[in-house]
Give the backbone structure.
Amino acid sequence: MNIKDVKNAFKVADAILDKEHGIRHIKFVFLDDIFDSVGNKMDSNVLKDEAGRIYLIVSNKKIMKIGGSECKGGIKTTMSFYQGGMQGGPSIRTYGIHILIKEELEKNHKVEIYMIISKKTKMKVKGLFDEEEMGVSAFRDMERKCKEDYLFKDGELPPWNFQEKGEVWRQDILQGLNEHDRKRKSLNRD
């Protein structure tokens, strides 16, 4: 699906090759001026907004991955996991998406990050002993809805939504992660 078919998303960043940092092959350059889906300029604090969010990783205008998060720090923190996908002990998803973005950039494809935000609404949330009014985001429902919309329009989920499609990662990515983990564990023993 082409990003131009999406009505609610707005662009927040471009991915670029990061040749200066050796182990970190990609980085995200967040926009100074962000405009919502109808062209209104948004407050740049939207990048740090901790409300639930859907992110779309787009290559040459094609949606490659739909994901969701409400981690602290906003979309900048969400994307930092992919940017740092070659550091520490990454999951296969974090490592694999990092590699796939890097490959797209090496083919001179334009990789962009779009976002749909789920503003928090007040509701009563039950705990073990009482209930408290809190701000909540329906980002999981929003993520499910976005994937259902994509599936309805394209007949299958985005190429990089491996887990949801029940697909196995490419063998070279699996081997690369295993090698990365071996090196990391070896360094930690020394």
